[in-house]
Design goal:
Layout: E1 12-17, H1 29-39, E2 42-47, E3 62-64, H2 75-81, H3 83-96, H4 100-105, H5 107-128, E4 135-138, H6 143-153, E5 161-164, H7 182-188, E6 191-194, H8 197-206, E7 214-216, E8 236-241, H9 252-257, E9 264-269, H10 276-284, E10 290-294, H11 300-309, E11 314-317, H12 327-334, E12 339-342, E13 356-359, H13 365-373, H14 383-396, H15 399-411
Parallel strand pairs: 1-2, 1-4, 2-3, 4-5, 5-6, 6-7, 8-9, 8-11, 9-10, 11-12, 12-13
Length: 413
């Protein structure tokens, strides 16, 4: 008789998100949440922001706790009540943060930021006080890390865990050039879980003093089958999947395609407000050898179904920056689809000789054009190669093993 997979000694877990399950973002959280729902008796999902008109389903044993529902907060009262901890946070940063002069220069802004976080802490605290033995897990090392750090200093929680994903550790992507209050967050967090080796190396290099708190635990996706193609097909199908924004550089795809000479069908999943118009305009003037479908925002289930029922020869990802290993690429290789991507962030940890082809971050358009023009005769257009891609996925980005590793990190505080 097989051994039963025991649940954590802690019966409940709080999962702090930016907006999930509301809105359209953070869809990659679903797999983790479904897995943790099997491990814990109760899940409390806490989005910092919410749009209740677009809520997604959550597991039966999950409850969504919205700080916005707790009523208005008197921030002047919050400021005065929490003056000692405000002083503690600012002294910590002014003594140990190398950006102290910038902090002083924008002191009123950062006081407002921490006071806002204290307001959220006031709203969430009554609920958390009922479950002091729960596990507290933030998916982003950002505002929630500050709020949880305050709760720890006040003695309401024993500790908390946070992932780092990209913008929450790549401080150069912030207008100020740093994240505040980073030192306070690092002093109070129990464990920082990096989603990629790149993220782990960055946080170790930027803040070596806290190295004992850092560990690696990758995201993963489900194995939903294999994408089937006919290698001899005259037309190649290219898929891209990304929110349309400047950092994702989706506009480079039509610029590449207009210079190719072979028959191509390009399908893009993902929208992006006014920036989407740029892509639509560039796609509308593509030559006759290129057919395209701009599908806009598409639920993840529909994207997976597309991979299950339509041939896809190549997945393209041309982002300017990535902190982790993009889930969109993980899903592509889970179906054995080869990838053409830029070597940024954690991307080289998934795109290599066994899974596809890497371009330099600032690649020449003609390099990508030549690769696509020669795709038919390349090793990537071969079922044996696609089988190797599938094998690489199973060994590195399968959700079962990766989610188990996350669970082990959560319960080993």
């Amino acid at each position: 008789m097989p051994l039963k997979d025991n649940k954590s000694n802690s019966k409940s877990i709080y999962i702090f998100t930016f907006s999930y399950p509301f809105g359209k973002g953070e869809s990659f959280l679903k797999g983790e949440i479904d897995y943790l729902a099997e491990k814990f008796d109760k899940l409390y999902i806490c989005p910092k922001e919410n749009d209740k008109s677009s809520a997604r389903s959550v597991p039966k044993n999950a409850e969504v706790i919205c700080p916005d529902d707790a009523g208005n907060i008197n921030y002047k009262y919050v400021f005065l009540k929490n003056l000692p901890i405000l002083i503690y946070i600012f002294l910590t940063e002014l003594i140990f943060n190398k950006n102290r002069l910038k902090i002083i220069g924008h002191l009123s802004f950062y006081i407002h930021l921490i006071t806002t976080n204290l307001g959220i802490e006031e709203k969430i605290k009554p609920h958390i006080k009922k479950h002091p033995d729960a596990i507290f897990y933030s998916f982003w090392f950002y505002d929630w890390a500050t709020i949880l750090g305050i709760l720890k200093v006040k003695g309401y929680i024993k500790g908390f865990v946070s992932r780092i994903n990209g913008i929450d550790f790549e401080e150069e992507r912030h207008k100020s050039g740093f994240i505040f209050p980073r030192i306070f967050q690092l002093k109070t967090v129990s464990k920082v879980i990096a989603v990629s080796q790149y993220a782990l190396n960055r946080i170790k290099n930027d803040y070596p003093k806290f190295h004992k708190k850092y560990t690696l635990s990758r995201l993963g996706v489900q194995d939903k089958g294999k994408n089937i193609i006919t290698p001899s097909s005259n037309q190649i199908v290219i898929v891209s999947c990304a929110h349309i924004s400047p950092i994702k550089r989706v506009e480079l795809i039509p610029e590449i395609l207009k210079k190719t000479t072979i028959s191509i069908k390009w399908v893009h999943f993902g929208g992006g407000n006014e920036y989407q118009q740029i892509i639509e305009q560039k796609a509308s003037v593509l030559p006759d050898n290129i057919k395209y479908e701009l599908r806009g925002y598409t639920p993840n289930e529909e994207i997976i179904n597309y991979y299950q029922t339509n041939p896809v020869h190549l997945f393209v990802h041309l982002s300017e920056a990535e902190g982790g290993v993009p889930v969109s690429i993980q899903e592509a290789i889970s179906f054995g689809i080869p990838v053409l991507a830029t070597a940024v962030g954690g991307v080289p940890e998934i795109v290599n000789d066994q899974t596809g082809f890497l371009l330099d971050k600032n690649f020449e358009i003609d390099d990508a054009v030549n690769f696509i023009n020669n795709f038919h005769s390349s090793v990537l257009n071969d079922m044996k190669y696609r089988n190797k891609i599938k094998e690489y996925f199973r060994n590195h980005f399968n959700d079962k093993s990766n989610n188990q590793q996350l669970y082990n990190n959560l319960i080993s505080l």
